[in-house]
Amino acid sequence: MNIVFNATKLKEIKQGHLNVSEIESDIDITNLYFKKGGKPFYIISGEFQFSRYDNALWEQEILKMKAGGINTIATYTFWNHHERKKDEWTFNGDCDLNRFISLCSKNHMFVILRMGPYSHGEAKNGGFPDWIWKRKDKRTNSEWYLKEVETMYAKYYEQVKEFLYQGNAGTIIGIQLENEYTKDESHIKMLKKIACKIGFKVPIYTVTAWSGGIPGDYSTVPLFGTYPEAPWSHGIKPLPNENRFKINKLFIDKIVGNDNDALRKNSNDILTYRIMQETPLSMCELGAGVQVTTHRRPYISTMDAYVLSLLNIAKGVNLLGYYVFHGGRNPNFAPMQETSLGFENCLPILNYDFQAPLGEYGIPKEKFYYLKLLHYFVSTFDVCDKQSIFMNKNDFNKYNNFFTSNIRVNECGEGFCFVNTYEKGCCNSGIKNLNVSVRQNDKILEFPVLNLHSGISFFFPFNLKIGNVNFPYIMAQPVLKIEKDKSIRYIFAKLNGIFPEYSCNKQKAFSEKGELKTGFENALKFNWADKNYSIELYDFSECLKMFYDTDTKRVDFALSDKNILYYNNGEKIEIFREQINEKYCEIKKSHRKKMQYDKYFYKKFCKKLNYTLKINKEIFNKYRDAVLIIDAPCDMAHMYCSGNIVADYININNTWQIGLSRFKDDILNDATFEIRTCAIKRHQKTYFNSEIHMNDASIKLNRIYGYK
Question: For an engineered disulfide with 52, which of 328, 593, 610, 635 has Cβ 3.0 to 4.6 Å away?
Answer without folding.
Answer: 328
